[in-house]
Amino acid sequence: MSTHWRFLIILHLLRFSLSSSHPIKSNPYLQFPCKPPHYNSYPFCNTSLPIKTRAQSLISLLTLEEKIQQLSNNVTQIPRLGLPAYEWWSESLHGIATDGPGITFNGTIQSATSFPQVILTAASFNRTLWKSIASATAIEARAMYNVGQAGLTFWAPNINIFRDPRWGRGQETPGEDPMVVSAYAIEYVTGFQGENWRADGGVQYGFGEKRALRDDGGSDELMLSACCKHFTAYDLEKWRDFTRYNFNAVVTKQDLEDTYQPPFKSCIQQGKASCLMCSYNSVNGIPACAQKDLLHKARKDWGFKGYITSDCDAVATIFEYQNYTKSAEDAVAIALKSGTDINCGTYMLRHTQSAIEQGKVQENDIDRALLNLFSVLLRLGYFDGDPAKGKFGKLGPQDVCTSEHKKLALEAARQGIVLLKNDKKFLPLNKNGVSSLAVIGPMVNDTSQLGGDYTGVPCNQKSIVQELQEYMQKTSCAIGCPDIACNTSNGFMEALSIAEEAEVVIVVAGLDLSQEREDQDRYSLLLPGYQMSLITTVAAVTKKPLVLVLTGGGPIDVSFAEVDPQIASILWIGYPGETGGKALSEVIFGDYNPGGRLPMTWYPESFTHIPMTDMNMRADPSRGYPGRTYRFYAGKRVYGFGHGLSYTNYTYKLLQAPNKLSLLGSIKPKSKKNILHQKADGVDYIHMNEVENCDLLRFYVQISVMNKGDMDGSHIVMLFSRVPHFFKGAPEKQLIGFDRVQTVSYQSTETSILVDPCEHLSIANEHGTRILPLGDHTLILADLEHTVTIET
Ligand SMILES: *[C@@H]1O[C@H](CO)[C@@H](O)[C@H](O)[C@H]1NC(C)=O
Ligand SMILES: *[C@@H]1O[C@H](CO)[C@@H](O)[C@H](O)[C@H]1NC(C)=O
Ligand SMILES: *[C@@H]1O[C@H](CO)[C@@H](O)[C@H](O)[C@H]1NC(C)=O
Ligand SMILES: *[C@@H]1O[C@H](CO)[C@@H](O)[C@H](O)[C@H]1NC(C)=O
Ligand SMILES: *[C@@H]1O[C@H](CO)[C@@H](O)[C@H](O)[C@H]1NC(C)=O
Ligand SMILES: *[C@@H]1O[C@H](CO)[C@@H](O)[C@H](O)[C@H]1NC(C)=O
Ligand SMILES: *[C@@H]1O[C@H](CO)[C@@H](O)[C@H](O)[C@H]1NC(C)=O
Ligand SMILES: *[C@@H]1O[C@H](CO)[C@@H](O)[C@H](O)[C@H]1NC(C)=O
């Protein structure tokens, strides 16, 4: 019997039981509002009415007590209106995850595609890939919703900047560069919320047809809801006495404008995300969920339409950890009045009633929140009756863990893996020329740690050694250390004995979730425990130099390995997901030419002398502060942002780029006479709000990429810019465009990158205002530089 038939029969049985004497209690997972027997004639079930009308109608039917019950992720049923319980919290960071209570893997669907952790996928710098993963995850999520195993509202992506290498959740993010994180946010959200379905009407998968948007005010329908988190300046878990719950991030206006906020702005403006999550921490003394100005700005200036959820218990922390208010009621009141619509947790459930009695919250504060909440659910079709009859109704178990999705997971791992070192072209190994392999390390025979955090149940997770054995039957394996913490060298002897025997030795070292995760930052950037000793001890006995494979999301100081001639090659595989072992094997044996580049700086251990709590991006030599990320840190690095080798070499030619740009015609007439007065450090500049028609200034940089080796390869082109020297607080350089291009051995390929001077060549000044310096800007493409002079 096919799973599909089994599913239909189960559905049939459930329908039957729903109409029995205890309709609400019997099957909590397959009830949908406005679906018979819950259909009612209230306007909120009437699909021909506008969203706002339907939402307002529903609000008008609720008692105050029922309204308060809506302010939690775990919403109680309201049988008299035919409303089942709803769980707002589901997770989908890199595939459907088990972390949210909205997901269960114990029904018809028992697993879902587990893509690599985000930091590795980010290393592919491939927007198409990013979007495809989000779309595939959305298909699996909708399928799970249809069979009652998931909600419609998901709390991903994590788009905080990977500011400090010790951060336990850096792995969840697309790295340290605001432009890359913004680009990722846009692809993830548009892919996950179903932009492709809107664009092609589902033709690709053969379901449904394009439904006319029936709405006022641009509240487009949604396939699923994605959430930009965590707003804002959140990137510390637990370090010394600081926890994410009590931390006050002190952030300059300049850093806020050009580092911390851009991903959120893009996620909302271009991604059109329908959810924003405020974080635990305070920003400059005000808890994020009480940041009225910032939350308001997101709606007013960025056009946010959706709901704002607190991180879990982030309303409680306003009072209990941040001590920002005098009572629980005050915390609820300030969160609601600042724009937070729902609280993950029970805090609002418990304290809103008394907040109302004390006059701190008014019923219309709650109505405003409910309008945002119900509007999103309505856009998702939650109140449209039987989901099986809807546009996404045919998605089911047959659409989860498909070969197409598993191939995409493999593709992501292939494209993300970074070759950090490759002495004398040691890799790739010749499939027919190597007689035996030894694979050593605590992770090599493990299948539980390859996804990183926010992982679900993979379709078919295989270990690294299993996949290598597919290539080389004669592969032996030893763990060397009992676990990643590696606090004993007891396993070294076994490792050494197989290392001596094999022709080629691969050591897999690095991090897993015991070292870096939610609520846990690292203190050191070195390999944990005796891992380094394991590597060097093994390297001393091998016939040939060995291959070192590094796992984990955070940077590791492996300077010792970079300089050790006994270590020929180093590969970083992040948390490569369920097909990661296969991708690694393909890279090692040359079936895939690696092209990933690091999305974050790898700092030396000495970097840990600076407090993790220092949010400043910019260096401050007067107090020995080195600054952060490739944009501001000029100190020693183990590997820089964008580092990544390949089995071939690439050279570039700049085919076309302008030498001069004239702002004449783009400056507001009134502003012209002021320009000469706007000097900073001897350089003229213009305020961005004095520039109009930015579109007219856009230009393409045309680039030719030559593959100078004997393997085809997919290669990432990165274009940087630098503003005229010297502008206080300006980045060393800033990534302004990237593209991943397919290249053919000994041939050149062309690509072009669109530059929008207003967006890409402007910088934030100390007041957090964007300005465009006049004069010579430098475009940087590897070792090529090109000057573009901006004049009035
Ligand atoms: C739904 O709303 C439309 C438009 O107001 C109205 O014509 C129709 O009668 C309503 N349907 C039901 C079942 O109430
Ligand atoms: C959700 O709330 C209901 C009561 O309304 C409770 O029985 C249930 O345990 C809660 N579920 C979770 C996951 O907290
Ligand atoms: C599935 O898991 C959920 C939550 O863990 C539980 O409430 C439910 O009873 C389980 N269902 C089955 C069929 O085991
Ligand atoms: C905050 O308040 C709690 C009690 O709610 C108290 O235990 C804690 O010491 C206070 N913290 C600070 C920093 O004042
Ligand atoms: C890997 O672990 C499994 C048990 O989890 C064991 O059966 C198998 O022999 C191990 N493989 C190797 C190559 O050691
Ligand atoms: C090493 O770790 C194990 C568990 O991970 C623990 O039982 C043991 O006590 C640790 N040994 C030392 C020397 O810290
Ligand atoms: C790439 O070029 C460098 C410098 O010319 C050379 O040392 C290296 O071997 C080349 N690598 C490959 C893979 O061709
Ligand atoms: C980008 O990713 C897509 C989707 O996996 C893939 O088809 C394409 O080949 C990739 N582009 C390059 C240049 O690798």
TrEMBL record:
One of its GO terms (molecular function) is hydrolase activity, hydrolyzing O-glycosyl compounds. It is found in: Secreted. InterPro entries: BXL, Fn3-like, GH, Glyco_hydro_3_C, Glyco_hydro_3_C_sf, Glyco_hydro_3_N, Glyco_hydro_3_N_sf, Ig-like_fold. Gene3D superfamilies: Glycoside hydrolase family 3 C-terminal domain, Glycoside hydrolase, family 3, N-terminal domain, Immunoglobulins. GO terms for cellular component: extracellular region. The keyword tRNA processing does not apply. SMART domains: Fn3_like. Residues 1-19 form the signal peptide. Residues 715-785 form the Fibronectin type III-like domain. Keywords: Glycoprotein, Glycosidase, Hydrolase, Secreted, Signal. This is Fibronectin type III-like domain-containing protein.
